[in-house]
Amino acid sequence: MSRPAGRAVLADDGCRLWTLVGGDGPPLVFVHGGPGLWDMAGDLATMFEGHYRTVRWDQRGCGRSQRRGPYTLDRSVADLGAVLDAHAAGPATLLGHSWGAHLALEYTLRHPERVRRLVYVAGTGIDDEDTWKPVYRQRTRDLPGGLDRASVVRQWTAEFPDRAQAATHAEAMATPWFEINRECSVTINAEVARRLRETDLAARCRTLRVPVLIVDGSEDLRPRWAVDSLAAALPDVRRVVLRGASHLPWVEDPDGFSGAVLGDHRR
């Protein structure tokens, strides 16, 4: 299978970041999950290319980007800024998924003038992760370990409640396949967990004037009440829960997902 060639963007420390642009219109930048994974927004780009200039990218050390640290939240925020500098002349819409939702939120809090709108998809909120992670661990306790493709596909299959389609969806997530960057995952997850324990992110969110759309799938293995305090703290927020969808709600309910995002398109 051929892979999109993309274009390299240099971070301010010289790290090469893979990017891919399509469509026409105001910029929409996808911020993928992980950490340690890669962009899987091909379907999303196709969904929105008629309305936006879509920008996909792999975070440093991941996928098609240069495998090079350091792996920190501050570095990730700066890298996202480099992608915006290269591909967004004015304020952009950020669509962040899972860990990418947290990264996009953090960027928006630091640089609200660069963000037209934040779409926060399947994130895990702003509370100490010990409030929700035990529930998640209980729900996933029987999943296999391993970082090889076959093991990860089996893990990802559990993300989809429609068991007839789960394996197909998980295979699509893993195509193309790149080595998972475990160092990136462990390091950034530990830093984010520490910051959530030690800082009052809700107070920062209460000052944000950028409109935020939160999109959840009701069947996500990560409990959706973990996002309640974030929604309560944001001054300009709309929340959409897609019934029957899970952690990748655009896969299971593409019409509901695109309707939610495009319903706020002119904001």
Give an account of the 3D structure:
Residues 28-258 form the AB hydrolase-1 domain. Belongs to the peptidase S33 family. InterPro entries: AB_hydrolase_1 (IPR000073), AB_hydrolase_fold (IPR029058), AB_hydrolase_sf (IPR050266), Peptidase_S33 (IPR002410). Pfam families: Abhydrolase_6. The structure is a single chain. Helices cover 39% and strands 18% of the residues. By secondary structure, it is of the alpha/beta class. It has one domain (7-128, 180-263): Alpha/Beta hydrolase fold, catalytic domain (Rossmann fold, 3-Layer(aba) Sandwich), CATH 3.40.50.1820. Strands 1-2-4-3-5-6-7-8 form an eight-stranded mixed β-sheet. Helix 1 links the parallel strand 3 (27-31) and strand 4 (53-57). The N and C termini lie far apart (38 Å). The model has no long low-confidence stretch (mean pLDDT 95).
Question: What's this, in brief?
Answer:
By secondary structure, the protein is an alpha/beta fold.
